[in-house]
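Suppose you are handed a protein chain with no further information: no name, no annotation, nothing but its sequence. What can you learn? This example shows the usual starting point.
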Amino acid sequence: MFPVDLPVAESTGGPDAILLAGPGEHHEHLVKSFSHLPLIRVVTDHDSADLSGEGGAVTEYTLPASLDYQKLLDILYGIASRRTDNTAVERRSGVAGAGAGELALPGRSQAMRTLSHLLERVAGKDVTVLVTGPSGSGKELIARRLHALSPRADGPFVPVNCGAIPRELLESELFGHEKGAFTGAISARSGRFELAEGGTLFLDEIGDMPLEMQVKILRVLQERQFERVGSSQTRQADVRVVAATHRDLEGMIARGEFREDLYYRLNVFPLEVPPLAQRREDIPLLINQLAIELERDGLGKLRLTQAAVAALCSAPWPGNIRELGNLLERLAILHGGELIGVAELPARYRPEDDTPELVPEAEDGQGVDLKGSLQAMERALIEEALALHEGVVSRAAPHLGLRRTTLIEKMRKLGIESR
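A reasonable first move is to predict its three-dimensional structure. Written in structure tokens, the prediction is:
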């Protein structure tokens, strides 16, 4: 029907989706035979009722008989993208189970591809991992992926923020305590190491841990043993430790603020999460993913224009993915169901040249630089489409409603290089 280039998943020997146009005698058989695949219906008001009883597809979409090309393209690309992600995760984990798609890392930039490859290599190895990266970049997400793809996936994942717990309570929080061990200990309590038995313990913001507690953590990592506060009974620690920090631990070691021996125990396999500003090509994908989650949580349907997405791709994002998520949540609450353009974005996320500069006529007889503004907008849209489709011109062209040759010519005129 339309020439559309889509992400290619590994061959499964069958179709990725079923497209039905109007009523037909074989439709019911097809729907039942491929009930595990997404179903796209092209219907009119007359035949939509006749097809209502065929159901059973895992996901169903409806298109009007007039065939909204952009909507069809979005549907097909979304299906192919999810199929690609699910296939990759199933290959990594060796299991094709429910929810496998939840394990895919959000992003197809080179930085995230490298991180995903490293994560795959270490997930099945029961070694300590240190995840580093700026605040809000998704370090806990990486830790959860490690756990979900590991042999300990059936065990608990227990997170603890080392910087959010008062230092006088941290030992009890991690190792537990016996009744009467200190004032207020009215009963015995298990610590996070016990709660994580057979699973993964995530020590977030390990750089905020006091030096006296660092010694105790080092002993657990070395000997796999610990005692509750107020007890002499030694307990075994059958847990995998994943630590994370946004701090410069090597700098802290030089200042005497972090133990060097603990650093090398934690840093067996380092994983560095890049800031969002270094993976801007992932932003459209993240926006789509977060928008789906917001709608699922009942906060409203989020719809952004291409210009708004392009503006967000050029924002600085000091707060990384957390900042992006907070912004989209705010937009969903304020403008849910509406089409959100650049004007609806908070001022800090708008391009600096969003409002064209007016030049007094007395100086040169010109007003708004319409040509320059249109070229800037066209450049932003093309670059955003190329980033979304990994630089593949044949995929970006239909996304923009252009022929491949037309897009190549526009890129040449605007000085945009293909990857």
